Structures are given as structure tokens and as C-alpha cells.
Amino acid sequence: MDAAVEPFKARRIYLLLRDRIAGGTLAVGSRLPGEPDLAAEHGVSRVTIRRALDQLAAEGLVERRAGVGTFVRGGALLAPTIVDFSDVFSHLKEMGRRTEVRLLSFGYTQPPAAVAEALGLGPSDRAQRAVRMRLMNGAPFSHLTTHVPERIGQTYSEAELASQPLLTLLERSGLRVARARQSIGATLAGPEVAELLQLEIGAPLLSLTRLVEDEEGRAVEHLHALYRPDRFNFQMQLQRTGADGARRWSPLPPRAANTEETATSRSTRSKRNSSP
């Protein structure tokens, strides 16, 4: 059997079993079939099954007991971090408070041409480049690469960036951040990012590029972020707007969305409290 095919087969089995655990088909505490039975069921080698089970065990989804078997664990699936796509800045600050960040690199360099153009930098201009990783409850979910014009980057230190959200540091420097343009796509994890995010090489990732601007329309930060899709997702509340015959879906303003959510929560709590 082609050795290059085995990792892809192992990942297919891993994803299949992971979906069954997440969906409740494999109940908490239940014992999985043995490696020979799983190998026969899926038409793969025992080595492939072992790789898939090892990945599930590494994520805490199953427990492997020597001489006994493999059992589904409870409460292991992590709830994804959710960000409201229409209220970026509020959620950036909140994320800074609720998650752990690890600064992987910090320095000044000439950015790639596309980044330099987006930031309005000249050919010889430098930018402060930082690479960070965010974790929730010790589990990594994002890999962030930021470029900030050198004049702005010099207003904060490496130690400060390691302990405070970049947006907070930008505003502390006197900048009045006003808007951002961002796009979302998909990509595959390269070797370095895969290792940091605890994924296999080639695993799918959410890819986000954001350009932050001040009130004068000057670009002050370029962000390229990679997210594990099983631990992070975006959401947006929509409402129907426009005249009859030309109605469309439009983003619900963040404040209105929060008010509606609060009202719904209060109504739900009221019904629960009044239930016999």
C-alpha cells in the first residue's frame, strides 16, 4: 500500500469517528470496536486505525485502556469561540480578555509587497511584524500574523504585546480606530501552522485578512489570521429590509441584535420561572 495514502485514510477514519462522537451516535462511555474489526469495516490497515484512534485520544475524545479497549469520553468536545462578524471591534477586545495569547515572534522587517501596498508603505519602509497564537482553555484555535507601520509599532513593546490586545495598544498610542475591511476564505495548514494548532498537515483552516483604518482612512494594521474551524466560527444576525418586491437580507446592527437577544433571554427565563 502506498505509504503516502495512509495518513489521508487515517484522517478520514478520524473525522468519521469524531462526527459520530459529536452527533451522539457513539455514546459517552461506549466501547469502540477493536482495531481488527474497525480495519475490516473500513477496508484499511490496523496501522491506519491506530493513527485515527491516537488522534482522537490526543484530543480527549476517547480513552484507550491497554488490554481493555477504546472508550468514548464525555465532555471532551470544545465549544467553538464565536465572533459576531458585524461587531468586530467589540469582540476583539472581549476575545483578548477571555483567551490566552502566546507571542511567537516579534521584530521589524520590510513586509511582503501586498501587505506594504495595503498599509500604504514605501519600498524601504518597515513594519512591526508579530506572530501570535490564541488559546481557549489551553487549546489553540488561531494563528495570527500582524503588520503595523513602524512609527506605530514603536509605541508598544514586545512584553506589552505579549500581554495586551493589539487593538488596545493601538488606541493607547492615540490612534482612533474607526473601521476595518476584512475577507474570509479557506486554506490548508502548512507544516509549521499545523504543528502549532495541533492539526495534521493539509488540514482545512478558516483564513481571514483584515485591514484596520483610523478616522482619516489611513491603514494602521494588517492581520492575516488562520483558525481551526472546529474551534472558531463567525456569526451574523440578519433582518429583512427594503420595499416589497426588492426585499433583501441586511446585517442587524450589533446593539439591536444584543437587545433582541437580551429580550429573548429574559422572556425565556420568565417562562422557566413561571413553569410549574
UniProtKB/TrEMBL annotation:
InterPro entries given in the database record: Bact_HTH_transcr_reg (IPR050679), Chorismate_lyase_/UTRA_dom_sf (IPR028978), Tscrpt_reg_HTH_GntR (IPR000524), UTRA (IPR011663), WH-like_DNA-bd_sf (IPR036388), WH_DNA-bd_sf (IPR036390)
Q: Which GO terms describe its molecular function?
A: DNA binding; DNA-binding transcription factor activity
Give the record's keywords alphabetically. Answer: DNA-binding, Transcription, Transcription regulation
Q: Name one GO biological process term.
A: negative regulation of DNA-templated transcription
- Outline the extent of the HTH gntR-type domain: 7-75
Renumbered to this chain, region (Disordered) spans: 243-276
Xref: SUPFAM superfamilies = Chorismate lyase-like, Winged helix' DNA-binding domain
Record field: compositional bias (Low complexity): 255-267
> What PROSITE patterns has UniProt attached to this entry?
HTH_GNTR (PS50949)
One of the Pfam families matching this protein, by short name: GntR
Name of this protein: UbiC transcription regulator-associated domain protein
Q: Which organism is it from?
A: Pseudoroseomonas cervicalis ATCC 49957
